[in-house]
Design brief:
Elements (H helix, E strand, L loop, with lengths): L2 E6 L4 E8 L2 E5 L5 H7 L4 E5 L5 H4 L2 H8 L2 E4 L4 H5 L20 E2 L3 E6 L2 E7 L8 E5 L4 E5 L2 E2 L2 E2 L9 H12 L7 E4 L5 E2 H7 L7
Parallel strand pairs: 3-4, 4-5, 5-6, 10-13
Antiparallel strand pairs: 1-2, 2-3, 7-8, 8-9, 9-10, 11-12, 13-14
Length: 205
């Protein structure tokens, strides 16, 4: 299991650079991610997005320009990165440089990304179309803003539903196994088992 982590932007958003058999994959693109990847002299082949909130997609267009890599995301994420006015429509004074996804991703038991097999789980509630990428071989979950160490994603943003989020975590993520490491969109890594036992939002009652 080879991966590296960068934390960028005012929301201290994590992204993860993962070494697959056929090249490097970047999960999410917060502010500063493009410069970070460039500084590593990595030939980036693929950018996968967990969801479309602005702090996770701010460098998408820049990365596409710099590396010419393909971009994959959920269909509901696509307008969040292609419409620069998307966030303004919800009353946020925010906009991004637009980019078009190269392909779309939905929940599936297995999908190959550059020779690496991932289960893709859709867990909305924090953001419509939110995806988690699970490498069973590595016991590794790139989870976006679904589950954090001691917390969960917010459910009060547009399209959010905290009950839906909590249900998805319990029904889908907790079934992956206690030894699975969760790489979250914010904060430190954690384990499924730790969160199942101790997380005050979704842990054992």
């Amino acid at each position: 299991m080879i991966y590296d982590t960068f934390c960028g932007g005012i929301f201290e958003t994590n992204c993860y650079l993962y070494k697959s058999p056929e090249g490097w994959i970047l999960f999410d693109a917060p502010q500063g991610a493009c410069e970070w990847v460039r500084s590593l002299a990595v030939d980036l082949k693929l950018l996968l997005l967990t969801h479309g909130h602005i702090d996770h997609v701010q460098d998408v267009a820049m990365i596409k320009r710099q590396f010419g890599c393909q971009i994959g995301c959920h269909p509901l994420t696509a307008p969040m990165i292609s419409d620069r006015e998307f966030f303004r429509n919800f009353g946020f004074e925010l906009e991004i440089e637009s980019a078009e996804p190269d392909f779309l991703i939905e929940e599936t038991p297995t999908r190959n990304f550059l020779g690496a097999e991932f289960q893709v789980l859709e867990i909305p509630g924090h953001c419509p179309g939110s995806l988690c990428f699970f490498s069973r071989k590595d016991k590794l979950l790139i989870g976006g803003d679904v589950l954090f160490a001691g917390s969960v994603g917010r459910g009060d943003l547009p399209g959010g539903d905290i009950d839906l989020l909590i249900s998805g975590i319990r029904k889908k993520l907790f079934q992956l196994g206690d030894e699975v490491t969760v790489l979250a969109g914010h904060g430190p890594p954690t384990k499924i088992g730790t969160e199942r036992r101790t997380n005050p939002f979704v842990g054992e009652e």
